[in-house]
Amino acid sequence: MQTYRWQLDLQMFNQEKTEKATPKKRQETRQKGQVAKTVELPGALILLFAFLSFFLLGGFYKERLLHLFGDLLQDWLTMELSAGNVMSLAYQVMMEVGLMLAPIFAIAVVVAIVANLIQFGFLLSGEPLKMKLNKLNPINGLKQIFPSARSSNSSKAY
Q1: pLDDT averaged per 10 residues in sequence order, the chain, 158 residues
Q2: Domain limits of the chain?
Q3: Do 3 and 77 form a contact (C-beta atoms < 8 A)?
Q4: pTM for the whole thing?
């Protein structure tokens, strides 16, 4: 490794702040809803627990599927078609499918809430939901869609 005559602190050229935030500033940003979080952790935990639910509740799913297809192949194929029968059949199928999906949905919701609570604790803030009218400026939107003439002219030089 080569040594240099002068020591140069490259942090002086960095645009990011090097000082740690004060507790007051950290509390203010937390109240605004600006917390460090990852979306991968809840997603991974939901996937893990959903597959664990298949392992643990496999008998329940097997029983429900056999009941659903057993009714389909034994009773529903020989049924007279009428508006009342079709509506009854649709309702019955939706209830069976809903009963099969309800445990998975419940596990996913509970795991997502717990994973987010693990990351940053309980936080209830309406600040990110506030409407910012300055973001709805149509002129700025047009500037982003249509670049300025200067940048388009510079591309012509190549």
Answers
A1: 70 67 78 76 92 91 90 81 84 90 94 88 73 75 70 54
A2: 38-125
A3: no
A4: 0.60
Instruction: Please tell me the predicted confidence (pLDDT) of residue 145.
Output: 79
For residue 133, what is the DSSP state?
G
Q: Which residues, other chains included, contact 100 with Cβ-Cβ below 8 Å and sequence gap of 6+?
A: 61, 64, 65
- What distances in angstroms separate CA 107 from CA 51, 104, 114, 115, 116, one per listed residue? 10, 5, 11, 12, 14
Structure tokens at 66: 């056999």
- Token code pair at residue 31: 């109240």
Question: How far apart (Å, rounded) are the C-alpha atoms in residues 82 and 106?
Answer: 35
Tell me, what's the pLDDT at 11? 65
Task: Please choose, from the candidates 52, 36, 35, 61, the residue with its C-alpha nearest in 3D space to the C-alpha of residue 111.
Answer: 52
